[in-house]
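Protocol step 6 of 9: fold each sequence in the batch and record its structure tokens directly after the sequence line. For illustration, a two-sequence batch is reproduced in full.

Sequence one:
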Amino acid sequence: EVQLVESGGGLVQAGGSLRLSCVASGITFDDYAIGWFRQAPGKEREYLSCVRNSDGRTYDDVRVKGRFIISSDNAKNTVYLQMNNLKPEDTAVYYCAEAMSSCHGGFGSWGQGTQVTVSS
């Protein structure tokens, strides 16, 4: 069974930083890509970033490029999202999801999400 578990969310002031973690199990981690998404209340889910675990290639959405950094630790089956210079509009539930081999295919299993709240 594929399982993704996010952690690291919380309450932070604007300008602060958080690092989210996504631990994957039930997959051959190196063969997969892991993406980060977020969804704010009343808004659609947004794609943020993705890493292809086979070679570490990353794909960032322009809205977070330069502020959010995705990375992976294949030995720990974990993908991180380092979020810097956070803004109130970054407040959302953050999710990770897995895709077989490529960031450009469909994402399959999803985690339960972790809440990030940025105060002004």
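Sequence two, same batch, same settings:
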Amino acid sequence: QVQLVESGGGLVQAGGSLRLSCAASGDTICISAVGWYRQAPGKERELVAIISSGDSTYYPDSVKGRFTISRDNVENTLYLQMNNLKPEDTAAYYCNAVCKRYGSTRDYWGQGTQVTVSS
């Protein structure tokens, strides 16, 4: 089992910045890729950023150049630095961890943290 706890959300004006954190605990040794997703009301959950065990990163065009994902493997913490925030970035942000063990894969999710960007 892996537990994920996000923090750092809040209300910010357009153009501002926030840094989200996701603390992992439990069976963290099985974690390979980790990432951030978001879900706005009435919309499907979408990928925001992902980082592999080899530190390769991927961002969709909607956040590329504004968001940066990073991980601290010693502290078992994942970060998302969000700069130049836009009202369309308003959503609940979720941390995701992919756990691979004994040939099987399992996804774990945090409870989410709300980000609201005012215009």
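Proceed to step 7 once all outputs are recorded. Observation for sequence two: The longest strand covers residues 91-101.
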